[in-house]
Amino acid sequence: MGPTRLRFTMIGFILGVVIVYLKELPISEGIRFASPFYGAGIGLLIDGIIVRLKQRKGNEK
């Protein structure tokens, strides 16, 4: 796992942990407790999009 992929995954996971501790949010407990894993997945998706954009930009030159 590359450094950027790990960075985005950890940022998503940490944001998900913050959501777990925000009890005032109007979401169910199941979604709130799963949010660190959702955040990690979203981080991986964002990293994949960034990598594809960089590859596409490199192919155009």
Question: Concise description?
Answer:
The protein has 61 residues and is mainly alpha-helical. 84% of the residues lie in helices and 0% in strands. α1 (3-21) runs antiparallel to α2.
Secondary structure elements and pairings:
Elements: H1 3-21, H2 29-60
Give an overview in words.
- Keywords: Kinase, Membrane, Transferase, Transmembrane, Transmembrane helix.
- This is Histidine kinase.
- GO terms for molecular function: kinase activity.
- With about 60 residues, the chain is an all-alpha fold.
- The protein contains two helices and no strands.
- Helix 1 packs antiparallel against helix 2.
- The longest helix is centred in the last third of the chain and has 32 residues.
- The radius of gyration is 15 Å and the shape is elongated.
- The two termini are about 25 Å apart.
- The model has no long low-confidence stretch (mean pLDDT about 85).
Number of strands: 0
Element-level helix/strand string: HH
Average predicted local confidence, pLDDT: 86
Portion of residues in beta strands equals under 5%
Number of helices: 2
Helix content: over 70%
Secondary structural class: mainly alpha
The Rg value, from CA coordinates, equals: 15 Å
Principal-axis shape equals elongated
For the sheet with most strands, the description reads: none
Q: How far apart lie the N and C ends?
A: 27 Å
Low-confidence stretches: none
